[in-house]
Specification:
about 120 residues, mainly beta, seven-stranded mixed beta sheet, four-stranded antiparallel beta sheet, globular
Length: about 120
């Protein structure tokens, strides 16, 4: 069983940057695809970015493309989301997700607030 813990959220002004981190324990992440999702109150959880187990393939939601970068360090069992040019509409809770076949796991979430 993989446990995920997000960190790095906080308050930032519009146009600023934050880096979210996702630390895994329990098992190595090297065999898992990893992703970031976000969910605002009263809304469905939405896809933000994903990265393949080896890190060679990434994909992004159109709303964050060219602003956010997902990357991973399998040696450290870490996944990151670098968020640049943040906008107020990026304000929400961000979740880290692991996927291996039909199995998924989620972190507890990290709040990101972007002020205008």
């Amino acid at each position: 069983q993989v446990q995920l813990v997000e960190s790095g959220g906080g308050l930032v002004q519009a146009g600023g940057s934050l880096r979210l981190s996702c630390a895994a324990s329990g098992r190595t992440l090297s065999n898992y695809a990893m992703g970031w999702f976000r969910q605002a109150p009263g809304k469905e959880r939405e896809f933000v970015a994903t990265i393949s187990w080896g890190g060679s393939s990434t994909s992004y939601a159109d709303s964050v493309k060219d602003r956010f970068t997902i990357y991973r360090d399998n040696a450290k069992n870490m996944v990151y989301l670098q968020m640049n040019s943040l906008k107020p509409e990026d304000t929400t809770i961000y979740y880290c997700k692991c996927t291996k076949g039909a199995s998924n796991c989620w972190g507890q979430g990290a709040q990101v607030t972007v002020s205008s």
